[in-house]
Automatic annotation (TrEMBL):
Catalyzes the insertion of molybdate into adenylated molybdopterin with the concomitant release of AMP. Pfam families: MoCF_biosynth, MoeA_C, MoeA_N, PBP_like. One of its GO terms (biological process) is Mo-molybdopterin cofactor biosynthetic process. Belongs to the MoeA family. This is Molybdopterin molybdenumtransferase. GO terms for cellular component: cytoplasm. InterPro entries: MoaB/Mog-like_dom_sf, MoaB/Mog_dom, MoCF_biosynth_CS, MoeA-like, MoeA_C_domain_IV, MoeA_C_domain_IV_sf, MoeA_linker/N, MoeA_linker/N_sf. The lineage of its organism: Bacteria, Pseudomonadati, Pseudomonadota, Alphaproteobacteria, Rhodobacterales. The keyword Metal-binding applies. Residues 199-338 form the MoaB/Mog domain.
Length: 643
């Protein structure tokens, strides 16, 4: 409860009351007591995805009558007890033929048979059907050379669904199989829970809706669409109202309107500081009891704000996309599912080995997202964290490992429980761990065309080689320069590994077009001019990258301004120069071209694939090599030269 008086200052008392995850959940559920919102009758067409509000009993039998399951003759089994190949039994034919949809008029009397189609109602007197191919025409009737057990080829009334039986239970999520059952007993509408209508509002001056051009310093609103999608996956109707700027009046108006017209309200962003106080004040004014938790000892997700106003949930998710999704799934979705009448989502769990130490912040329950590969001793859980601001972690991860608040790290080799996002992790065909290159996407496209799926985890060359050494992946893409020999990749292989030759990528010096220090000059002259100018700021690369080795070689011990800015990708280097945060750096040519930057070639870098000589899936690896050969045109178009 947060009725504490607020200082009118700008003091950073953002988290009035940091609760444990469990305490926050309990406070929220206690104040909300989530329950379904009411019942509505919906026709069959609208039922998929809805949740049944009452048990449904079958009003009729299915099938409604005893029927033939084959084309043949309705007979009396007793007539054929003695039938054999040596002494076929003759049966005379009844004058009627029973088609589907024809009610029989005449009984089957001893010594007779009635032609019947699959699905035709069994006539009185008959107790079995003999298949047409087990009979021969015989004068005015048929000859049957085998006995037939009573009940053969008959499906009896009510054998599928018995009248009065509970067909579907309350709480069932209706899909195609349920529609079939309802339709089969003649039901054309069913009572379902009303879907909670949930308003979704993003907050922040920097947000631009997808489809619009991006302004400088702005980002696309990804939380709004992803929360809306997740709401729909959890039985709610999502109403995405776009983004509202950090302006008190605009925020108050938007929040009040969204709250009034919906069953729940989900905001994102601005929970931790500044504008967050605005949102919090508006929420406090919406109704009692108001905010029940603001600040939860969770990682990601610390600034989560949970409120209940006049019986409706009002939630402010952290702005960072990964934090927003995690807190939504962990603490918000279960309550909304209960309001939608859906049962709790059962999460499958598997055990997997941690290949590396997993560090965690003491005092916060931490969820570490992991991608699974198959290792020699079972599943291996590779952390895929890119920070709370990332949007790709959910798509790349199979699930997460929970590190309790009082644990600060899990050592390598720990067998950890992984809670899966989906029903079961689908085993990828090929596990590729190492350095990522845009050219690899072209190869994987070709590989998919050959029906083989691959999982890529971008860990850098060294991480990939280590995973390959532990046999936790099939392929490690690497570009490692041995400064001693000047050779690429081969010196780094372990005994029993080999290289599949990949391609060469030209590394070079990047600059903004028109920079007089570089434009029209050769590499040496440009470098000399840059190093001579104290105003020239460089952007470096991370230690351990091949590009860094090249750069350090070029710099020959110099430490120009910007040296300590060390991002880990070609794209970050190019963005930094294009946006004027730095003036020069090193990256591969396609990245320079994509950003419209000037480029002075420095050296060809070799990007190859390390594999074991005795791979665990030789066929998949052969398919990879074939896909690599097929990708020559795409690679050439990207500016890569096949090795
Ligand atoms: N000094 C402190 N700074 C921060 C703290 C802290 O305790 N002290 N907490 C950090 C944590 S943890 C998180 S999580 C974030 C949460 O911040 P907010 O909830 O206030 O979110 P914003 O500041 O508005 O945005 C953070 C980040 O996310 C981007 N964003 C916001 N909305 C969207 C959206 N709809 N779609 C895509 N991206 C969005 C926004 O542009 C920012 O980059 O705060 C830390 N800081
Ligand atoms: O809570 Mo924040 O979500 O750690 O990044």
């Amino acid at each position: 409860m947060t009725d504490a008086p607020r200082a009118p200052s700008h003091a950073q008392d953002q988290f009035l009351n940091v609760l444990s995850r469990d305490a926050a959940e309990a406070a929220f559920l206690d104040a909300l007591r989530p329950a379904p919102l009411g019942v509505q009758e919906i026709g069959l067409d609208g039922l998929p995805g809805r949740v049944l509000a009452r048990d449904i009993a079958a009003p009729v039998d299915a099938p409604p009558f005893d029927r033939a399951t084959v084309d043949g003759f309705a007979i009396r089994a007793a007539d054929l007890f003695e039938a054999s190949a040596a002494r076929p039994v003759h049966l005379r034919l009844s004058p009627e033929t029973i088609a589907c949809g024809t009610a029989p008029m005449l009984p089957v009397t001893p010594g007779s048979a009635t032609p019947i189609a699959t699905g035709g109602p069994i006539p009185r007197g008959a107790d079995a059907v003999v298949m047409i191919e087990h009979t021969e025409p015989d004068g005015d009737g048929i000859a049957v050379a085998r006995a037939v057990a009573p009940g053969s080829h008959i499906s009896f009334a009510g054998s599928d669904i018995a009248r009065g039986q509970t067909l579907l239970r309350k709480g069932t999520l209706i899909g195609a199989p349920e529609i079939a059952m309802l339709a089969a007993v003649g039901i054309d509408r069913a009572p379902v829970w009303r879907r909670p209508r949930v308003a979704v509002l993003s907050t922040g001056d920097e947000l631009v809706q997808p489809g619009q051009p991006l302004r400088p310093a702005a980002v696309y609103d990804s939380n709004g669409p992803v929360i809306s999608a997740a709401l729909r996956e959890n039985g709610c109707e999502a109403v995405h109202l776009g983004a509202v700027p950090d302006d008190p009046q605009a925020l108050e108006t938007a929040v009040r309107a969204a709250f009034a017209g919906h069953d729940a309200l989900i905001l994102s962003g601005g929970t931790s500081k500044g504008a967050g106080d605005l949102t919090v004040r508006v929420i406090e004014g919406l109704g009692a009891p108001g905010i029940v938790a603001h600040g939860v000892a969770l990682k990601p997700g610390k600034p989560l704000c949970l409120a209940v106003c006049d019986g409706k949930p009002v939630v402010v998710l952290p702005g960072f996309p990964t934090s927003a999704m995690f807190t939504f799934h962990d603490l918000v979705a279960p309550a909304l599912r209960a309001m939608a009448g859906l049962p709790p989502r059962g999460a499958a769990r598997v055990e997997a080995i941690l290949p590396l130490r997993l560090s965690s912040e003491l005092g916060r329950t931490e969820f570490a997202m992991v991608a699974l590969t198959e290792g020699p001793d079972g599943l291996v859980a590779h952390p895929v964290a890119k920070g709370s601001g990332a949007v790709t972690a959910f798509a790349q991860a199979d699930g997460f490992v929970t590190v309790p608040a009082l644990v600060d790290s899990l050592p390598p080799g720990t067998r950890a429980e992984v809670t899966l996002f989906g029903p079961r992790a689908d085993a990828p065909g090929l596990a590729i761990i190492g350095s990522h290159c845009v050219g690899l996407d072209a190869v994987l496209g070709r590989l998919a065309g050959r029906g083989i799926r691959a999982r890529i985890l971008a860990t850098g060359s060294q991480g990939g080689l280590a995973a390959l050494r532990r046999r936790e992946c099939d392929i490690a893409p690497i570009h490692l320069l041995d400064p001693e020999t000047g050779a690429y990749n081969a010196p780094f292989l372990a005994e029993g590994m080999r290289l599949i030759p990949g391609w060469r990528r030209m590394q070079g010096l990047l600059f903004r077009p028109g920079d007089p220090r570089c434009e029209g000059r050769g590499l040496d002259a440009a470098l000399a001019a840059l190093l001579a100018d104290p105003e020239a700021i460089m952007v470096n690369r991370n230690q351990g990258s091949g590009t860094r080795v090249l750069l350090d070689g070029l710099l020959g011990g110099a430490r120009p301004p910007g040296y300590w800015n060390q991002p880990a990708s070609h794209n970050a280097v190019a963005a930094s120069i294009a946006q004027g945060r730095a003036d020069w750096g090193m990256a591969i040519r396609p990245v320079a071209a994509a950003m419209g930057l000037g480029f002075l070639p420095v050296a060809d870098e070799h990007y190859d694939f390390a594999v074991w000589q005795d791979p665990r899936d030789p066929a998949a690896l052969a398919a990879f090599e074939a896909a690599l050969a097929d990708s020559a045109p795409e690679l050439a178009a990207l500016g890569f030269v096949r090795a």
